[in-house]
Amino acid sequence: MTVISVSLSTNRETHVTTGATVWLTGLPSAGKTTIAYELAGRLRDEGHRVEVLDGDEIREFISAGLGFSRADRHTNVQRIGFLADLLARNGVKALVPVIAPYAESREAVRGRHKESGAPYLEVHVATPVEVCSVRDVKGLYAKQAAGELTGLTGVDDPYEEPLSPDLRIESQHQTVQESAAAVYALLSERGLA
Predict the structure, then answer these.
(1) Residue 167 to residues 23, 27, 105: CA-CA distances in angstroms?
(2) What is the pLDDT of residues 108-166, one digit of tens each?
(3) Which listed CATH number (3.30.1390.10, 3.40.50.300, 3.90.79.10, 3.60.40.10) goes with 20-127+159-189?
(4) Which of 21, 41, 63, 153 lies in the 20 to 30 Å Cα band around 99?
(5) What's the DSSP call for residue 67?
(6) Which pLDDT score, from 0 to 100, does residue 16 have?
């Protein structure tokens, strides 16, 4: 009888397996996505599994066909919330930079996470509309001012600010790195980083 010896390598990359959703809400051009990607890099460097659920990408690939009515925006947020919860329950840090303008929609997402037991943190990137309109990363404020766009959140469509977010960031007063560090500190405080 021949004995074959197999050696399995244990030299695998170490991953931190505590999942959570970090929902970054705020006006267009508030800095949500920039903060999310900065935080994602730091978390990945420490061995966390991380996904950034960018609102623009979700609209293109998962919520294509939805408009910007209140009902469509709610549906979009619920789809993103479902994905975030699924990832969080499976050991991934889901960073979600999405406007999510309505409190009711955000509370439904929080409720889904509470029901599943997945940690959920709401971060309000509370950049004033005046600052956002100067940043105007996508040119939305300029289009709205020129009459080419209506329904811009925070200008001619409502944005319901979170009443008690887990963290409030005023990105106009700090660097992206400082904003990301504040979110990281919150994760650490909750035992999630």
Answers:
(1) 10, 16, 18
(2) 999 999 999 999 999 999 999 999 999 999 999 999 999 999 999 999 999 999 999 99
(3) 3.40.50.300
(4) 41
(5) -
(6) 65
Beta-carbon count within 10 A of 176 CB? 14
Q: Please, what is the Cα angle at 53 between 43 and 175, to 5 degrees? A: 55
If you compute the radius of gyration of the chain from its CA atoms, what whole number of angstroms results? Answer: 19
Cβ neighbours around 62 below 10 Å, total: 14
Is residue 171 within 8 A of residue 125, CB to CB? The reply is yes
The distance of Cα 168 from the centroid of its chain, to the nearest Å, equals 14
> Pick from 56, 80, 41: which is nearest to 137 by CA?
56
Nearby residues of 185 by Cβ (< 8 Å), 6 or more positions away: none
Assign 3-class secondary structure to 141-163: HHHHHCCCCCCCECCCECCCCCC
